[in-house]
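so ive been stuck on this for like two days lol. basically i have the seq below and the ligand is calcium ion, smiles is in there too. i just want the complex predicted, nothing fancy, no docking runs or whatever. if the output looks off dont worry ill sanity check it later, just need somthing to start from for the group meeting slides
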Amino acid sequence: MRKLLFIFFYTGIAALAQAQYTLIGDAAYMKNDCIQLTPDVAYSEGIAYYNTRLNLQNFFQVDFDIYLGDKEEGADGITFVIHNDKRGFEAFGTWGECMGYGRWSKYYRAGAYIAPSIAIEFDTYQNWRQNDPPHDHVAYLEDGTNYHDTYWHNNNPSFNLEDDMLHSFSFRWEPDKQRITVWLDGEIVYQGVRDLIYAVFGGETRVIWGFTASTGRASNLQYFCLRNLALKE
Ligand SMILES: [Ca+2]
Ligand SMILES: [Ca+2]
């Protein structure tokens, strides 16, 4: 992924909202104030990081719309990531099934992956190595691997996110309860208690957040649009 070596800092003054992200790879600003992660092109990867670090000691909620494409047989999906990778705003993971976040195998720390980290994946393509079910799904991830034991798909074997629709996504962190809650289209699709500051980030409170996505042999246009941010920096 040679193009991932180029990091584009957008510093335009005309669109202040757009200036808040660092874009990597195929990520690009769109006309509708959304940010493309991947075009509908094979072997693409894009990442967008919010330019200001998040403080995990504070309440944090973000509300976005995400778009995962219009081809049911497309790939691969989007992740929402929070990390403290030593590469900082240049951190990226592997393409294809790793969605720009993870690595090919959870057992081998080889190739590019973002860690330490947590992520929420919106996965649109089944991959055996990552323990994916045959349908689209949402899963909680950690430590730069896309492998997951559990997932959410609304108990619907034909659950499909590649329906040419925007899907509302919310992520909430409640530091007093150490609780993560994730909504998709108004439904809670993940909730868990985790000591992010100490168990995941080794005591670090200021971490980077954003979105990653990639494609493989199959592809889809994938992007996100901000609806609301509630955070103290
Ligand atoms: Ca997958
Ligand atoms: Ca699908």
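The chain has one domain: 2-231. Helices lie at 196-200.
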